[in-house]
Design goal:
The chain is an all-beta fold. The chain has one helix and 74 strands. The strands form nine sheets. The protein has a 17-stranded mixed β-sheet, with no helix packed on it. The relative contact order is 0.04.
Length: 678
């Protein structure tokens, strides 16, 4: 049996005894095995405050110093003893330790809590001083411990090894004529409250402030080369002119508050700020809450700007990024070179974007949205450029509201403009004023409950400049019973909601006349429809559909996303299907243009790209339109940029024909070799 040494055993942990067993088998071979057995001490003290300093301010040095511990286990009670090593008296009752100095003396006193069997001992260093103590005090490598009490340091300069503020305790550092400063070379643990007002807390190299409680800095400075670690449940409140000069990490449930409620706050972070928790800027009436981050800032958690409508907030950073949730509920000015949103940005007040003053005089802040931009406020782009490549939703997805943009805005190829529709008073609206609006990407409609029918609804307006560009796709054009009727204008877009006729697979529909507006939903495949004129809307959901038109005054025709759809021109032998005379958005999901009924056609790049959509069912290539015709048909490719290619054979409806290829930047037109091309 091997007897372990218990010289360093404190009684707080279990001992494990290892026994080795030796035996000899019949062949004479020695066999060895081991057996372990744990031994647990009945003495399990939870007190461990060795080398801690507890600061206590009293009117006299003989005032009692009382500290309450989180937990002290003293079973069995007779094993415990307590003594004051340097004079005075100390008592321990349950979890409360009380010490009284022996003489009128201000200085460091030691109290030892020990077990009488000598297995364990914990010492507590108590610093007693009166208001008359000098302002310089050195605690060496000890730690400042505050437990279930409030400890004040006024106009005091202290250098210590560490700080520990337990839950229920508070450490208040304040300075009036002189600055109160704590310089810490080791760990700082805050489970209670650390408040620094008009003073400073300095973390030396390698020191970490781990905060699960509250840290409050008012007109103060958190400096040094250490690290502030805001763990779950920890919060950092910053007020007045405050500087955070150390590295900061935040957990998901941590909180940072820039508080301009009762007085304006101006907070500076000297290092890059990465927020994983909740960062709030809040200002009261007539006040401001300003955050400056010298290198840059990235939000992965929640960034909330809120407060009184008569207050304001500001963020100044070289680069600002949002990959989490950012809500602007109070007027906010962002000054930066670049601002990128890849998360959710909700603007319910005025968000003004301004160029970094260090940039060139003629430069502007570059704002990009690859996430979701929503809200009912105002986006001020007077000193910014903005190309939207994400979701743009006035009000919010599923919630009607008006979003105002002041300045120029471009909807890029990947942009999705999402508009909710219910009626003239309850629908989304996008207003662009003071700059140009350029359409692009996808326009998606969502019909809300209890909509108003047959009434124009204004959803986009740009009163100051004509709108340029076009949407490459319109989606959400029906809800199964109603269709969206779009009416594009030079300075805006209005829509109306109409009850529609539903067509199933293999259905045939023949319009009753050119003065009739036909509203149709094709729910199946192989549908044959003849439209004779009027503000017609056909929304297909299948494929293999054949849609005939004899005039160009229709508003929207979608053959269906399944593909294999044919647009048949029924205008007659002397007619012209001139695609340049209609909106590019008006035709979607067609693989074939059939001119065999007579007439000629004019096609350009924008309209062919919009009407072809994805992959052609007959050629297997993207953005490809087959034109079927004969010797009597003439096809003009307008707009320039078209290049003549080789002839190819394509089989359509069981018949193989030769087609002449023309291409333009990824868009292809294949014309029946019997037709004439120019």
């Amino acid at each position: 049996v091997f007897r372990p040494s218990i010289q360093d055993w404190t009684g707080q942990e279990s001992l494990t005894v290892t026994m080795r067993n030796l035996s000899v088998d019949p062949t004479g071979t020695t066999l060895s095995s081991t057996t372990t057995a744990p031994i647990t001490s009945a003495i399990s003290p939870q007190l461990g405050l060795s080398d801690d300093l507890v600061f206590a301010v009293g009117t006299e040095s003989t005032s009692p110093v009382t500290v309450t511990f989180d937990s002290v286990q003293t079973a069995p009670a007779p094993l415990w003893g307590i003594s004051a090593q340097t004079g005075g008296s100390a008592t321990l009752f349950e979890t409360q330790l009380t010490y009284v100095a022996a003489t009128a003396h201000a200085g460091l006193e030691h109290v030892q809590v020990r077990t009488e069997n000598g297995l364990t001992a914990a010492s507590l260093s108590v610093l007693c001083f009166t208001d008359a103590v000098e302002n310089t005090l050195t605690g060496g490598t000890g730690s400042l411990a505050v437990l279930n009490a409030s400890t004040h340091l006024d106009a005091l300069s202290v250098t210590i090894g560490g700080v520990r503020v337990r839950h229920g305790g508070s450490l208040i550092v304040s300075g009036s004529d002189a600055m109160a400063t704590i310089t810490v070379g080791g760990a700082v643990e805050a489970g209670g409250t650390i408040s620094v007002s008009g003073g400073g807390l300095t973390l030396a190299g390698g020191a970490t402030l781990r905060n699960a409680g509250i840290i409050s800095l008012s007109g103060a400075r958190l400096a040094g080369t250490g690290t502030l670690d805001l763990v779950s449940g920890g919060s950092l409140a910053l007020r007045l002119a405050t500087e955070v000069g150390i590295a900061l990490t935040t957990a998901a449930a941590a909180q940072i508050l820039i508080d301009g409620g009762t007085a304006s706050a101006s907070v500076l972070f000297d290092q890059t700020l990465i927020n994983n928790g909740t960062l709030t800027l809040s200002a009261g009436a007539g006040n401001s809450a300003a955050l400056s981050v010298a290198p840059g800032m990235e939000n992965y958690g929640t960034l909330l700007v809120s407060g009184d409508a008569a207050g304001s907030a500001a963020i100044n950073a070289d680069n600002l990024g949002n990959s989490g949730q950012m809500t602007v509920g109070q007027d906010l000015t962002v000054t930066a070179r670049e601002f990128g949103n890849g998360g959710t940005l909700t603007v319910n007040a005025t968000l003004a974007l301004r160029d970094d003053t260090d940039s060139a005089p003629d430069s502007h802040l570059a704002f990009t949205n690859d996430g979701l931009l929503a809200g009912t406020g105002t986006l001020d782009l007077s000193d910014a450029t903005f190309t939207n490549q994400g979701y743009l939703s006035p009000g919010g997805l599923g919630t009607a509201g008006t979003l105002t943009v002041e300045g120029a805005m471009t909807l890029g190829n990947s942009s999705v403009l999402a508009l909710d529709l219910a009626g003239p008073a309850i629908s989304d609206h996008l207003t662009v004023q003071g700059g140009a609006l350029t359409y692009g990407g996808t326009l998606v409609f969502s019909i809300l409950a209890n909509p108003t029918l047959d009434t124009p609804i204004s959803v986009i307006s740009a009163p100051d400049q004509p709108i340029a560009g076009y949407f490459t796709a319109l989606r959400g054009m029906d809800n199964g019973t109603l269709v969206v009727d779009p009416l594009f204008g030079g300075h805006g877009l209005s829509v109306a909601l109409h009850a529609a006729t539903r067509l199933g697979s293999n259905a045939t529909y023949d319009s009753s006349g050119e003065t009739v507006n036909d509203y149709l939903i094709g729910t199946g495949i192989n549908e044959t429809v003849s439209l004779k004129g009027g503000a017609d809307v056909f929304v297909g959901h299948g494929g293999g559909n054949r849609i005939g038109v004899s005039a160009l005054d229709f508003h929207f025709i979608d053959g269906g996303a399944v593909g294999g759809n044919e647009l048949r021109w029924d205008g007659g032998s002397d007619s012209l299907f001139d695609a340049t005379q209609i909106r590019p958005e008006a035709l979607q999901h067609f693989d074939l243009l059939n001119l065999s009924g007579g007439g000629d056609a004019v096609l350009d790049y924008a309209h062919v790209k919009a009407m072809t959509g994805g992959t052609n069912s007959y050629t297997g290539t993207g953005h490809t339109l087959l034109v079927i015709g004969g010797d009597a048909n003439h096809v003009q490719l307008a707009g320039g940029g078209w290049e003549h290619g080789d002839s190819v054979n394509v089989t359509v409806n069981g018949h193989q024909e030769s087609y002449t290829q023309y291409s333009n930047d990824g868009v292809r037109v294949l014309v029946d070799h019997n037709a004439h091309i120019s």
